[in-house]
Write a structure and sequence with these properties.
Blueprint: H1 10-20, E1 24-29, E2 38-44, E3 49-56, H2 62-72, E4 84-89, E5 92-98, H3 112-127, H4 139-143, H5 149-155, H6 163-167, H7 169-175, E6 187-189, E7 198-202, E8 205-208, E9 215-217, H8 220-225, H9 227-232, H10 237-244, H11 255-272, H12 284-303
Antiparallel strand pairs: 1-2, 2-3, 3-5, 4-5, 6-9, 7-8
Helix pairs in contact: 5-7, 5-11, 11-12
Pfam families: APH (PF01636)
GO molecular function: kinase activity
Keywords: Kinase, Transferase
């Protein structure tokens, strides 16, 4: 059975209630983000609902929560993100946010949620430029070493590598880093955009959550990183290109740089889907295989390589 509010040590619970200025009268368990963690919606005596998530301080993943706390405490009130209400750092590391009711936006063709998600990213780019986190790493320093899947696959090409990839492997490797000169910028990037980190709270309104991997860079990187998930939801490559065409974040960015970033994302998914399932997760590699397939189609559409 997953842990809940009552499973946290009494001193931790007391500190949370003290920070919030009201005792907890009811708790609803939620699915934790990671094994061994706690996630819950809490009802307070003063009538408020809040959202709590916590990890033991010894957890290898607690660094992500620390980064999220730093970001949440520095974002302007106008940013489309939930507000951080309490932080407790002790035997457990606990974050409490304003409660938001909503669902994951649907990124399938014809869904109005697509426009809402893209609008939220535009709002992020406007409100988080200049970058409010002085310690945020460079996006290029963070992503550059990670997005080299095609180069690694070329060292020992898998026997089941898609025929199109095999024919164009050298070209994919050559293009994989071509986005680097266009990665510099002074926008705070979420750096891990996917449907699970977006919450649709009402018609046309999407909030961005789980800021565990912030970076400083060009705003268009966050925008294009959502493309594979739009494709996985059923969007056609030509439709995605049409949606991107007039986005302000892409003004002045060469089309080939956008394509190159797509190449890098496809290579990362292609390599990652062949690795063992990460501890405490289910279905990650299967979804990455799906991302590899659809992003490869998008790259083929944009390059017209045979």
């Amino acid at each position: 059975m997953r842990a809940g509010w009552q499973d946290l040590p009494l001193p931790i619970r007391a500190a949370v209630e003290r920070n919030l200025g009201s005792p907890v009268t009811r708790s609803l368990r939620q699915s934790p983000e990671f094994d061994g963690g706690v996630s819950a919606r809490l009802h307070l005596e003063d009538g408020r609902w809040v959202f709590l998530k916590a990890l033991p301080s010894y957890s290898q993943r607690v660094g992500g929560y620390r980064a999220e706390a730093e970001v949440a405490g520095s974002l302007p009130a106008s940013a489309p993100v939930p507000r951080l209400l309490s932080l407790v750092d002790g035997e457990w590391y606990v974050l409490v946010f304003s409660d938001i009711e909503g669902t994951r936006p649907k990124l399938r063709p014809g869904s109005p949620d697509v426009s809402a998600a893209l609008t939220a990213l535009g709002a992020l780019a406007r409100t988080l430029t200049p970058c409010p986190i002085a310690s945020a790493p460079s996006a290029l320093d963070d992503l550059g070493p990670l997005l080299n899947g095609w180069r690694e696959l070329r060292l020992d090409p898998p026997r089941d590598l898609d025929a199109w990839c095999a024919r164009n492997l050298d070209a994919l490797v050559a293009m994989e880093t071509s986005w680097h000169p266009w990665a510099e910028g002074d926008t705070l990037l979420h750096n891990d955009l996917n449907p699970s980190n977006l919450v649709l709270t009402g018609p046309g309104r999407v909030l961005v959550i789980n800021w565990r991997y912030p970076a400083r860079g060009a705003a268009w990187l966050d925008l294009v990183s959502l493309v594979p998930h739009m494709l996985a939801a059923g969007q056609e490559p030509s439709d995605v290109d049409r949606l991107l065409r007039r986005r302000p974040a892409l003004t002045g960015i060469p089309a080939w740089a956008v394509t190159a970033f797509g190449v890098a994302l496809a290579g990362h998914a292609e390599r990652s889907c062949r690795l063992p399932e990460p501890p405490g997760t289910t279905g990650v590699r299967v979804y990455q295989e799906r991302l590899a397939t659809v992003t490869r189609r998008w790259v083929a559409h944009r390059t017209l390589w045979s």
